[in-house]
Specification:
Low-confidence stretches: none
Number of helices: 7
Radius of gyration: 20 Å
Largest sheet: none
Number of strands: 0
Structural class: mainly alpha
Order of helices and strands: HHHHHHH
Distance between the termini: 44 Å
Helix content: over 70%
Strand content: under 5%
Amino acid sequence: MKIIKQLCLIFGMCLVGVAISSVLPFTFPSSLISMLLLLLLLITKCIKPASIKETSEFLLSSMAFFFVPSGVAIIEQYSFLKGKIAVLILICIVTTILTFLTTTFTVTMIIKYMNKGAKSNELDPK
């Protein structure tokens, strides 16, 4: 029963993301809206991480399985992609590098932020 509640919570966020995306006057991915909403609820502690832990761990451990349909779709479109393989590979390389750089920058900023908070706590005479 616990996992069903967790799934309902996660899928509920997805449904809210779809609803918000359909109302917006511009195109914006509902999955991104859902993730941002869930992040906001986790940061504000409206949802405790423990309340979605088991289902989240299962979904993360099964993530490779969720990419199978995308891989099959690419294989089905081989005739369309046939002359554009070099461009596709270049896009993959560039986006991988951009992802690495963005991740590095984000982690560096978070570490600096956490160290600043730790130093201010050391100076705080309670």
